[in-house]
Amino acid sequence: MVLWIGVDDTDSLRGMCTTFLATEIVRDLTQDFDLIGYPRLVRLNPNIPWKTRGNGAICLRVGHGRGLATTIGEIGGRKIRSYPRGSKEVEASEVVGRIANLVERWSCFDDPTTNPAFVVLSRPPSAKLYWHTVRSVVTIDEASRAIRGLGTVRSYKNGRGIIGAAAATAWRPGDRTYEILAYREPAAWGTPRIVEPDSVKAMDRAFLTTFNNYDYANRRAVITPRSPCPILLGIRADRPQELEPAMNRVESERPERWLIFESNQGTDDHVTRGRPGDPFTTVNFDGEVTSAPRTILGGHVIFEVDREEVTAYEPSKQFRKVVRLLVPGDKVRVIGAVRGSPKTVNLEKIEILRLAVVTRKFVNPRCPDCGGRMRSRGSGAPYRCTRCGHHEPRNEEVRAEIARGLALGWYEPPVGSRRHLSKPLRRMGVPVGPEESTPG
Predict the structure, then answer these.
(1) Among 78, 87, 168, 262, which one has the highest count of C-beta atoms within 10 angstroms of its own C-beta?
(2) Distance between CA atoms of 263 and 40, rounded to whole angstroms?
(3) First and final CA of the chain: distance in angstroms?
(4) Looking at residues 37-54, what average pLDDT do you find?
(5) Class in CATH terms, 271-357+404-428
(6) Do the beta carbons of residue 169 and residue 152 sit within 8 Å?
């Protein structure tokens, strides 16, 4: 029997990281047990207001391994291997105390928003719990009911971490990606990271299934976090075999440990098809642009689709250039998060489905009597010839179609402005340039 271990809400904005705690649990438990499959980094609803940073929980499966082992990490100079399946029975009582010691040692209990929890289950709960938790708001009671009778639950403070810990064990990977996370020496935590940007660009071009490595539009490596957490860098890919070589290509300070996680990052699992409804959800809907984009204080750009307000916020950077080119009559597909107050859709991606024809007055018409140039007498008024006084109706003006500066297709923010769960266009099969610049 394989034990399913889920952990969540151990970090804070000031430091720590739940994935680092995962490496500590792996370090401890693999002295006596085996990892089954990859450790899992499961991102949950990114719109939850009380999340810490990326709203990620972790899931580990331990037992006695069978099959061909694969190296998936290195901790304390020891190679970490995982097995495709497990055999023999492992009792939860054999690991609960060890996990509790580590959670209590490493969690940021002094942060009022940190509410750790872990679960040790004999089997995973229904996948419905994962889908509910990645797409909407789940209560502690709902999560607790989903895992009732499946094993041990340990929570601290207000117990909110139970939600993510349980949901992480409920994820059944369909579309999946992988991330290698390298961690710093403890003495370096909180100090500036040493990662050579040019080497990140070289790695990005050499390993083609990796993604979201470098923001070419803003000239910034995005594999390094901005928080004072233990992580040195993280590289994501569709193929786990590329990750260790990709990490080794990057010139950086020497990592103290590293581990490869299986993840739902870059999958759009958080998106539901339908018009904006409940806040804290992410929707995908089609419609017609019904108001011209306008820029408000702070650089945010607002427009309407079928009278639903949509906003491209300033952190989306060059993506706002595309939004500003929209006009009423364009048909678009919007993917974005529903904000409650004021109600708006925070734009994550947009597809241009149809472009409206936009014209401008080319020249005033000539007089049919004398050939002189006619003049406008005001908005909506007929034209009048300044030479002979002849009048012509307004619809006689000569108009020309103007270029829109937009093409049909998908557009997304630059790399450094994307959410963890948002599926990049390159993973959607949409052709992008080698430097993933935002068109427009």
Answers:
(1) 168
(2) 6
(3) 55
(4) 91
(5) mainly beta
(6) no
